[in-house]
Every structure is written in C-alpha cells, then in structure tokens.
Amino acid sequence: MPTVLAISSQVVFGHVGNSAAAFALRRLGVHVLPVPTIVLTSNPAISPHAIQHIAPDKLDEMLGALAANGWLDRLDAVQTGYLPSAAHVAVAAKWVRRLKAEGALYVCDPIIGDEPAGLYLPEASARAIAEELLPLADVATPNRFELGWFAGAEIADAAGALAAARVLPAECVLATSCPADGRLANLLVARAGAWRTEVGAHERLIPGAGDFFAALWLAHVLRGESRVTALALATAGTEAAIAASGGEGIDIVGTQGLWTAPQPWPVVKA
C-alpha cells in the first residue's frame, strides 16, 4: 500500500486541508500520515470559529517522533499544504529534503491565497514557500491566483497560464482554475509536454476543492496511473463531487461513490 506524509491544516467541521485530502487518499487505497500545522473548528470564513496553531518546534517534534518510530521509512510521497509562517516552511523544507533523499515524491500544494481575496498568508510566508519549497517540488499544485503570484504575472488567458507554469522552478506544475477560452482548466505542465482538462466556471468559491483535487491526482499516480491519466481522473472525480454536493463545500463522504472510479475527463494538449 502506498504511504503519504501530508503536512497541512486540519478542520473539525467541513473538508479542507488534510480534512479533505486524507479521506480522499485513504478511500483510494493510500495510507496517510496527516500532520497538522494548524487546527480549526472550520473554514475561517465561517464565524464564529476557533484556531489552534501548532508551533513550528512542535511540528518538528512530531515529525521527529514519526521518524524515530520508523513510520517515515519508505514513504512514497510527502505533500505539504497550509504552512502559516516562514518558520513552518523552514521545518517543512528540512523534512522534505530528507525524505526526497530517501526516494519520496514531493508534492507542494502552495496554499497562499485565492481570488478574489488575494493573499491569506503573511507575505513572508508566501515568499518562503516560493524560495524554499517550490524549487524542491517534483509537482506543484497552485490555483490560478497562486500561479500568477509566484510567476509575477497576471493570468489573463490560456497562453498566460502556460507561460506562468513554465516559469515556476518545480519539475512539474498542476495548476487549477486557469482560463481556457471562456471556461476554466486544470493545467498539467511537465518536461514532456502540457495538457489540460476544461470545466465550466463555478458560481462560487468552493472551499477544499483544490485540496481534494490534488489528493485525488496524487492517489491515482501512486496507484500506477500516468500523470496525464491522473489529471483526467482527478478532474472527473472533483467535478462529480462538486455537482452532487449542496451547501458551501464538498460532501466528499456522501459523494464517494461518484469520485472513486469515475469515467476519465477529456484531456487536450495545451
């Protein structure tokens, strides 16, 4: 069974961060070690809410204990998500370097912000992710806003998204919510080429959709699918879950019969 170390946020109510990714990975047969960087009652857009930050030294201590018990041996992948400070980024980078040296695939979900709100991390934290984690990434999974912020360019059209993805230092970029001829696209840019899946625009921001999509993609890759096929399957699964969910988020438990083995979404060359 593939094993993933997932370092990100955790919520009590809803499905964002590791509270989305861990279930998706497990449901697709991947063993997950979820390590929280912050614990929240819910998406902070919901009030009232409560937050407990995990101090960087405690994050390092937890990872050290996992390693001492042998639970980080022979990892297939490590995925980082929400890292609230530059100090958290430094801890994550330390462990990513170690685990990559031992053969783990590194997926960096650079969670720094979204449209229309912009950055929701301190700029120092976002800069630290750009400088310390993106160059280590085998795969980076930014949304449209994050892709433009890291590339220093406004993403106005499909050509701009493709150009921005090629600027990032990650080996492979899997970007979501990119413009594509009046629609939105999930864009995969690698050394071998570029591909995209096109979807309709959603009427509202869907908390956790990016976390869920990245987890589905990683799970399919670890199950032996090519990165392009994983793009088709992750897009299909995410769209099916969104379409079948009501309310403000994704009901990933109630819709699991739709996203565990979907028909692949059409993929075109970008």
TrEMBL record:
Asked whether the keyword Nucleotide-binding is assigned, the reply is yes
Q: Where is the Pyridoxamine kinase/Phosphomethylpyrimidine kinase domain?
A: 25-244
Q: Does the keyword Cell cycle apply?
A: no
What keywords would UniProt list here?
A: ATP-binding, Kinase, Nucleotide-binding, Transferase
Q: Enzyme group, top EC level?
A: transferase
| CC per GO annotation | cytosol
- GO MF terms on file? ATP binding; pyridoxal kinase activity
One example of a Gene Ontology biological process annotation: pyridoxal 5'-phosphate salvage
What the entry lists under Pfam families is as follows:
Phos_pyr_kin
Q: What is its EC number?
A: 2.7.1.35
Q: Cross-referenced PANTHER family, in alphabetical order?
A: PYRIDOXAL KINASE (PTHR10534)
Q: What is this protein called?
A: pyridoxal kinase
